[in-house]
Amino acid sequence: MSIARKPNPARRSEQSRQAIFKATRELISEVGYANVSIEAIAARAGAGKQTIYRWWRSKAAVVFDSFLALSEAGRQEEMMLPDTGDIEADLKLVMRATVTEFADPDFEAPIRALNAEIINDPDLAAQYREKLAGPVEEAKKARLCSAQRAGQIAADADLDLVLELLYAPLYQRWLHRSGPLTPEYADALVDLTLKAFRP
Amino acid sequence: MSIARKPNPARRSEQSRQAIFKATRELISEVGYANVSIEAIAARAGAGKQTIYRWWRSKAAVVFDSFLALSEAGRQEEMMLPDTGDIEADLKLVMRATVTEFADPDFEAPIRALNAEIINDPDLAAQYREKLAGPVEEAKKARLCSAQRAGQIAADADLDLVLELLYAPLYQRWLHRSGPLTPEYADALVDLTLKAFRP
């Protein structure tokens, strides 16, 4: 069939998208968010500048999609936290996976560069919360709610505060490279947080 | 006496030092650590470039001294945490003061810029820990030790972890502007941390 020999536009378009995301993440790691240009992304990705402008309305939009794409494959499952009925076991599983991710140089370099930008740029911080952190936090809160209904976490617990107690120490330790990121550390944070919010 | 009319070199030298510190902090807020030059500091402070090179061996050294100077006057007292025998009351006093400091735009702007640099620069992170964070943490740990002896905190508690649970949520909330910094928030962090580390 002649159709098999023709280039597949949908497939080429997806390859181009992935090349643009990869180039964006690499450039952010190398030169920092502020110094990345659409021109440089296009050059590295082997794509046309106009293609990028047609698909995204700003540099920030490409950057966010490139981070979303990083875990797009596993995204559907990731957005639902495991719910075996045992909040301690489920949180330890998730926190250990997070620690492993942050300890991976390939994963952490672009995230680190993005974090440095977010600190100085309130607009970027707001976008980050809305597009990346927000949806993930909602998924986590859904799991915590289920633990509240099961009487494993105080019914009046502020879930924003639960997430801060659980994740902020790990985030700060990673950001400042101030201590080891180990499975034992992940477990300790879960144990302490559950004790602090015990009914 | 003629000596009263002569310029006082020690005093002029201290004024010059303070002008250099102020210029350094202002420039970091305005253009970011990476873009601050010794030339620009000298020009804004009305000092000679050679003076700066004579007093400090690097840009990082001037920057750190300029942050140390920010609380130099209160430094001696700050380094000792209050010890009334009531760890809850003492920590709430200190945490409320920290929240107030981070909510002050004049104080927070240069600290924010410095934090963004620390994230991308492991050497700067190590210097920050050694010169600024380290001594303050030792003072806090001394107070926590005293609470351990009084049976108010578990004897086997990891004091690094106590400090992370207490301060990292506040730090992250400030860094990401993700929630209000209030006295109630300071109190909540103290209550939760003490519950998590209860003997």
Can you summarize this structure?
Chains A, B: Keywords: DNA-binding, Transcription, Transcription regulation. The structure is a homodimer of 199-residue chains. Chain A contains eleven helices and no strands.
State the CATH topology of the largest domain in chain A.
Tetracycline Repressor, domain 2
Helix share, percent of chain A: over 70%
Sheet-strand content of chain A, in percent, reads under 5%
So what's the overall shape of chain A? elongated
CATH superfamily of the largest domain in chain A: Tetracycline Repressor, domain 2
CATH architecture of the largest domain in chain A: Orthogonal Bundle
Structural class of chain A: mainly alpha
Number of helices of chain A: 11
Q: So what's the oligomer here?
A: homodimer
Q: Uncertain regions of chain A: pLDDT < 50 for 5+ in a row?
A: none
By CATH reckoning, the class of the largest domain in chain A would read Mainly Alpha
- Greatest interface and its participating residue counts: A-B, 37 and 37 residues
Q: Could you give the distance between the termini of chain A?
A: 66 Å
- Strands of chain A, total number: 0
Look at the structure and give the mean pLDDT of chain A. 86
Order of helix and strand elements from N to C terminus of chain A: HHHHHHHHHHH
- Outline the biggest β-sheet of chain A: none
Count of folded domains of chain A: 2
Radius of gyration of chain A: 20 Å
DNA-binding region (chains A, B): 37-56
InterPro entries (chains A, B): Homeodomain-like_sf (IPR009057), HTH-type_TetR-like_transc_reg (IPR050109), HTH_TetR (IPR001647), Tet_transcr_reg_TetR-rel_C_sf (IPR036271), TetR_C (IPR011075)
Keywords (chains A, B): DNA-binding, Transcription, Transcription regulation
Protein name (chains A, B): TetR/AcrR family transcriptional regulator
